[in-house]
Every structure is written in C-alpha cells, then in structure tokens.
Specification:
The relative contact order is 0.09. It is extended and about 40 Å long. The protein has one domain. It is mainly α. Helix content is 34%, strand content 0%. The chain starts with 29 loop residues before the first helix and ends with a helix. The protein contains one helix and no strands. The longest helix is centred in the C-terminal third of the chain and has 16 residues.
Length: 47
C-alpha cells in the first residue's frame, strides 16, 4: 500500500465534513454503511 496512488486532486479533500462540525451520522452513505455492517456481521459470525 505504501507509495500507491489513491486518486484525487492534490489539495482537495474527498469529504468537506471530514473531522468538522458537520461530520456526523447524518452525513453517511447509507449503501456503504449497509455493506460494512453486513461485512462485520459476516466476520463476527465466523469467529
């Protein structure tokens, strides 16, 4: 992973609310949240 480009534009943030006042649970992507929850449940089921 070290030294690999991740895309984007230099000096431009991906999320304007990152670690800011508007960074809350109301500012999440529901599809990504669902997918990560499913992945976590899958891992916990097989531990």
């Amino acid at each position: 992973m070290f030294g690999q480009g991740k895309g984007g534009i230099a000096g431009v943030t991906y999320d304007h609310c990152y670690h800011d006042f508007c960074d809350s649970l109301a500012n999440i992507n529901p599809l990504v949240h669902y997918k990560l929850t499913q992945a976590a449940a899958y891992v916990l089921e097989y531990l």
